[in-house]
Structures are given as structure tokens and as C-alpha cells.
Amino acid sequence: MAHARRPLIRASEIAEYVYCGRAWWLRRVAGLEPAGRERRERGSALHRRHGMAVAASRILLLLACGLVAAAVLLMLLLR
Question: pTM higher than 0.70 for the full model?
Fold first, then answer.
């Protein structure tokens, strides 16, 4: 006897439903996609780029701290 597979409900779907049940219904049941897809994709790309810039700034900050520590150590050793 074959078991019927239940549809998988993701956490993002629950969040979408909680935020706006009508939007969830339109997307999941009626099969309609919201307008502005290109704008959302561009926003996602901008967020990814910003996230990479933040990560790079953290690396540069750590490098700067290391260089300052090395300079202080060098000054103390050369006294």
C-alpha cells in the first residue's frame, strides 16, 4: 500500500502566513506571484554585496589591530 505524501510546510511558509494569510493563499493556493520580482532580486543582490563589505571591513579591522599591537611590541623591544 502506497503512502500519500503530505505537502512539506516550511518555516518560511508559516512566517509568510502569519505576516499575511491572504498573501500566503495567493502564492501557495492560487499560484500567483507578487509583483516586483526584479526589484526584490536587486535588493537581495545589494544586501549580499553589503554583507561582503561588512565582512571585509571586519577583516581589515582585525589586521589593523594586529599591526598596532606589533608596532607597540616593536617600540617596547627597541627601547
Answer: no
Alpha helices in the chain (DSSP H): 11-19, 21-28, 37-77
CA–CA separation, 9 vs 63, rounded Å? Answer: 44
> Comparing C-alpha atoms, which of 64, 67, 68 is closest to residue 56?
64
pLDDT for 5-51, tens place per residue? 888 888 988 999 999 999 889 988 898 887 888 898 999 999 999 99
pLDDT tens figures, 60-72? 999 999 999 999 9
**Residue 2 in grid coordinates:** 502506497
Question: Is residue 63 within 8 Å of residue 69, measured between CB atoms?
Answer: no
Amino acid 45 reads: A
DSSP summary character for residue 29: T
